[in-house]
Structure of F-box protein At1g78280:
Amino acid sequence: MELDSVSQSEIVSKDRRPDGLGDFIVLPDEIVCSILNLLSPPDVARLACASSVMYILCNEEPLWMNLCLSKENRELQYKGSWKRTTLHGLQVLDKCVDPCKKPLHFDGFNSLFLYKRFYRCYTRLDGFAFDQGNVERKTDLSLEEFVQQYDAQKPVLVPGLADTWEARKTWTPEQMLSKYGDTSFRISQRSSNKIAMKLKDYVFYMQEQHDEDPLYIFDDKFGEVSPDLLKDYSVPHLFPDDYFNVLDSDQRPPFRWLIIGPERSGASWHVDPALTSAWNTLLCGRKRWALYPPGRVPLGVTVHVNDEDGDVDIETPTSLQWWLDFYPLLADEDKPIECTQLPGETIYVPTGWWHCVLNLETTIAVTQNYVNSKNFEFVCLDMAPGYQHKGVCRAGLLALEDNAKISMEEDNMSSSELTQKKKKLKIDEHMDDLSFDKNVSDLEFSYDINFLKMFLDKNRDHYNSLWSTSNCIGQRELRDWLWKLWIGKPGLRDLIWKGACIALNTNKWSKCMEELCSFHNISLPADEENEQILMEYGLHPYSLSSMTSESGLKNHVPNILATGIVFLENGSYKIMPWDGKGVPDVITEHSTIDDIFSGTEYPFGIWSKKLFEYKKAGMPLEELVSLGGHSNIWPYIITKRCKGKIYAELRDKLLEEDVSNLASFLGKQLHDLHVLPVTPLNELSYLHIEKKLEMGHDNGTMDNSIQNINLSAASKVFFTILNRKKKDVSIRLTKWGSPIPSTLIEKVNEYLPKDFVELHNLFKDENGKFMEHNCCSWVHTDIMDDNIHLEQMKESGNGKEGSWRPSYIYDFSNMSLGDPILDIIPIHLDIFRGDVELLKKLLDSYKLPFGKRCSSDDGCKVRRISYLAMCYCMIHEENILGAIFGMSKELRTAKSWEEVEEAVWGDLNKYF
């Protein structure tokens, strides 16, 4: 007995944590595990050797799952565990078979955080059904009844809509595996990478896995990879309309998904994109649903809205974690609307409703999101620029009220959970600008479009405002969509007009256009015509006209019909002529510009635009916002009506010969643009700017490398802008994220030059001073597929329509002074889509040197044209790199920027 007693006392092991974690012991396990997720697999493997505690933490399956899924995009093949799968991807699995099988020993170590996660990984959901749910079930629901009682109002569960579908019989795991086993489907997971798995590999994964949040087939391209699947079902009669149908398949946002998932998988709390409505039909298995009305954020969920562009980010636990950890804390009156969906049932989720889904067993389903007359205005509202209204649409009055008004049962919440709740949406500092009849705190939240519209920023410039990356389509695509609806659905024009007024402030611009046309005696454009009415700051029309009068550009820039200034005064628009010379009184009286450079008779021309770029380069966001302000004064240009179509509409219809001719045409136009004389500005001009703006380099003075070079004033400003943009490039690229590889973002500062002056061909004069060889030219900066008009020619003799000929290039509002290569970048990436042969065709007709550069094989990287082009892409204000890596999946595995440079721009080095 005494020996047994001693043995028992010896079994009680010493706590491993102090020795095993060292200084990390002050951090909770949740933070330590979060840090481990930031490491690479080799670093995790090395850290596992540091101590027994680190060995336990570094061999946890959820960690290796995250490490594996954070790898570059690829087709995944599960190997029985996430560590084995990761090592297989690194091609080191054979060397590490035994460590993968080695059991973990936990004596002397305990962790509530790891235990909860382990429990969630192995819990069974047999008893999770909620068959007596409070979502209405309606059999034989008619379309009229659905529209009156449910559409855009409340959810409903409808049995029988899939009874006639082939999918009702054939969409089972066994039959789909037999027919589509070798087909790859996209996987939904909390990873920025797009991951796919063959169905046979995914079925193996479902059978073997024990993940808290299992991988989930959520494929919006299943109809393209397996067209037969589209024949197995049809859209239920309750949902006949989808206004996105007017868009071509490659233009419309994702709208239908094949969903396959095992027990414990599901969709965490979210509101469907663009505030669309959705229907979801279950073919196999059971799903548990929870829903909250619009504006009521579920417990445990935090909503963030980006102050810049309104991009909405949601922090939410997994669906299983929410039901296990948060659901039990809810009082009965705070619980969501719930139901268990059975095979053959279709659930309808209205616009703006929060919902969460948990698969109780292996499930197969199909779902579609759509826009109809009931939610059209909400969809337009969600895509309007700004951020306040987006927060209200998702978080309701939580987006406006202070933390004290958050109605949560705080006694049952941990300090970390309370901290998350206090991270709710910021109160907008400009709430006082809203013209409410009563205090915001007294308002009842209403998901009424007229109520939600009150939170729009009425003064926001919809054309120049940042466009949210969370929007389902871009700003140009939105205008194109509304236009196609206007033409294709004339019976809906009242509704379409309301949506356009919400999303684009169309009523404001329409009134303005009416005043302009009336003042200049120009007829209003007909519905079916394309009128080019430009209202932009930038190059003044008369200087543009004089610049093109003696060059080849004159035949391909639309004629200017009228110019002037339009301004809003006492609720009505006033028009005054202005030739661009001097400063009109209306601008002097209303402008916040503290200094107007008087060195030219066109104070608001290119040079002033360059100074503005110089001033804002490297500025913090808050300064930029105040710098932009809201203006009620617009200089404008009205150009002639351009016949034909833009290249964006014709891209897929043009013959190869037409596209080749377009490339040659663009080369000739760039030549004519880049040889135009640049207005000289003296050194005093630049010194005046430097002193006035006080925007030198870090030490407050102009960089010595620029001071010691005899550069033109324009070039000094240009180089200073480049150097200032370079300072925050890592932050900007990290914010953009995928598809830019994170491994390359880490190397960006190493790749870029110390000073951009190094990139230009400079030589010493007889006095030993550096001189500039490749000076700044006029550049358009954004010739893209919607800037080019083409006309269809008549075939000689028979009157039939033939090839398409380039006719006009327009939108010179971004005209600037800079390196000619800046015009090559958008053309090659947006118009040519990286086609090297088209680039060569352009260069053949361009016939201007980019400067005397060294050849690409002499080791002088800063003198490669390809290096210069790559650097411009990296520091560009727009996400040029996202376009590059989005266009070429192969480049996402590049190990260095030099590799990307050679692939995209290498052919420039052959051009001299």
Summary: The mean pLDDT is 80. Residues 526-641 form one domain.
